[in-house]
Task: inverse folding
């Protein structure tokens, strides 16, 4: 019996089979969770429906997090199918390409800054707020995805790093707010993985190569690596963990210096 047997999970953020959300869905399905899905727009609808069918689900709901009415409608519709649910996976981020390439200030505008924060950080709090009535008293869990750029200044990541810092702070405030209601809130800070969103970041191929050479495990992580930890964090096995950012990056973030050679 899987460790998510009897749990129901809503998965956002599938754009392709390479999406981190797909890896999380795979692991949660394997561990026995019942799944529902959202898609951002009509272009992605059939792709998400196909993924859902592979996981034995016919609950596929529209959700553009920029639109308050869609957020409300999504949880209304979910409530028609499920009287409650246990797990909310937030795997959503966006910043315009010019804001995540080149120098921080060159791509910076009030609009880009606001948009990155709205879609990538505010949306976590907005979804948690809308999900709250359906997640009461079930030992539930919310999971989001962050990146090292929240803590360190990384070339090209720019305004998305600032938005991820806001996302990680949002995780802590949500954890404090929702803990007494039996809802835990955690983030995974994932190492770089080639997905559609990542392709927008300047120099992404070089980032992958750098991590492969310098991470202690000498490889980049996969959506399966992230999915397994995500499934664990949302399960009762992690009942004592909330408000945390767990790194799934092959150890890259702990390295200070390498490459000096033996005895040097
Ligand atoms: P992806 O492109 O597969 O997924 C991004 C998702 O965000 C897409 O499904 C897209 O539809 C959704 N999205 C964007 N704007 C939206 C909106 N307005 N409403 C609803 N959905 C919207 O890429 P991914 O890498 O799987 O990204 C998932 C999460 O993982 C993101 O938060 C990303 O920042 C984070 N992350 C990715 C990496 C990486 O290297 N790929 C590393 C660390 C963290």
Result:
């Amino acid at each position: 019996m899987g460790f998510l047997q009897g749990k129901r999970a809503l998965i956002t953020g599938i754009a392709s089979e390479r999406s981190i959300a797909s890896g999380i869905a795979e692991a949660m399905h394997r561990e026995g969770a019942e799944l529902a899905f959202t898609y951002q727009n009509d272009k992605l609808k059939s792709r998400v429906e196909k993924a859902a069918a592979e996981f034995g689900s016919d609950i596929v709901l529209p959700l553009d997090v920029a639109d308050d009415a869609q957020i409300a409608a999504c949880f209304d519709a979910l409530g028609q199918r499920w009287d409650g649910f246990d797990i909310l996976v937030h795997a959503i981020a966006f910043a315009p390409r010019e804001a995540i390439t080149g120098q921080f200030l060159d791509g910076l505008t009030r609009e880009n800054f606001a948009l990155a924060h709205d879609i990538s950080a505010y949306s976590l709090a907005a979804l948690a707020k809308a999900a709250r009535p359906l997640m009461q008293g079930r030992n539930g869990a919310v999971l989001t995805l962050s990146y090292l750029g929240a803590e360190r200044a990384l070339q090209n990541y720019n305004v998305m790093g600032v938005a991820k810092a806001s996302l990680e702070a949002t995780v802590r405030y949500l954890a404090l707010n929702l803990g007494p209601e039996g809802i835990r809130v955690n983030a995974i800070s994932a190492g770089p993985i080639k997905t559609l969103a990542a392709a927008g970041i300047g120099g992404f191929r070089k980032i992958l190569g750098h991590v492969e050479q310098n991470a202690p495990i000498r490889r980049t992580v996969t959506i399966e690596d992230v999915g397994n930890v995500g499934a664990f964090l949302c399960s009762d096995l992690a009942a004592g963990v909330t408000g945390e950012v767990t790194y799934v990056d092959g150890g890259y973030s702990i390295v200070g210096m390498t490459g000096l050679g033996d005895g040097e």
Residues 8-249 form a domain with the Rossmann fold fold (CATH 3.40.50.720).
